[in-house]
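note to self — DONT lose this again. spent like an hour looking for the file last time. sequence + predicted structure for the chain T wanted, 83 res
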Amino acid sequence: MEHAKTVDELCAEKGIDAAKLASLANLDEARVKAIAEGRWTPSPAERDRIAAAFGLTRDEIAWGHKTIISHIHGHGPQFGRSP
């Protein structure tokens, strides 16, 4: 079985940008751009609209965040407490 493609891979394959996909899916362009960049996890309804724009079902597309997880420095739960 072929791996599911992400929204940005499908856009590149079809030669469309976020504005065109937003128009086809009847969604806000900023939201579609965030979804394509992996910064926003779409709702089931948004997934259905985007998938339909590609002629696919939502299960045929790879969804999810692509943001790299990095270590965040903090002071921990004891910060500000006296011993």
